[in-house]
Design goal:
Number of strands: 0
Number of helices: 4
Order of helices and strands: HHHH
Radius of gyration: 17 Å
CATH architecture: Up-down Bundle
CATH superfamily: Phosphate transport system protein phou homolog 2, domain 2
CATH topology: Methane Monooxygenase Hydroxylase, Chain G, domain 1
Number of domains: 1
Largest sheet: none
Shape: elongated
Distance between the termini: 7 Å
Length: 137
């Protein structure tokens, strides 16, 4: 089994760090914006992200012992697609509700974008892991 290239390790580490940084930014913005209650869409997105994080951890564990990554990688991809659908629905609801202030629209649009970026980065990390796995084969 060939060793892992340093560049690949660095790329994966950066991607995983980006996932954590984006998740932390969501938390920081919720506090900064003074959000008092989390929308149902944001809760659904949070659950999706938690599942993607678990699947990413599973993929990393399986990778470390040279086991099949495909099921975990496919689930991360499915979750990312689910997150896209949640985002579309959330934005539609956000703009359909007439009682929202302009400030609330801006806050939630930003938070939904950050949540989606976090999930996108989970998928990017999974793709990097898949690429390394193919090189190792």
């Amino acid at each position: 089994m060939p060793p892992i290239d340093q560049e690949d390790i660095l790329m994966l580490a950066h991607s995983l760090d980006d996932v954590v940084d984006l998740a932390e930014e969501v938390s920081d913005k919720i506090e900064l914006y003074g959000v008092r209650s989390i929308t149902d869409s944001a809760k659904s997105f949070g659950q999706c992200l938690a599942k993607a994080g678990t699947e990413l951890a599973t993929a990393l564990e399986r990778f470390s012992v040279s086991q099949d990554l495909v099921p975990a990688l496919e689930e991360i991809h499915r979750l990312e697609n689910e997150g896209d659908a949640i985002t579309r629905h959330a934005l539609q609801k956000l703009f359909d509700l007439n009682h929202q202030t302009a400030a609330d629209l801006i806050k939630w649009k930003d938070l939904y974008a950050l949540l989606e970026a976090t999930l996108d980065e989970c998928e990017s990390a999974a793709e990097i892991l898949e690429s390394i796995s193919i090189k190792k084969a």
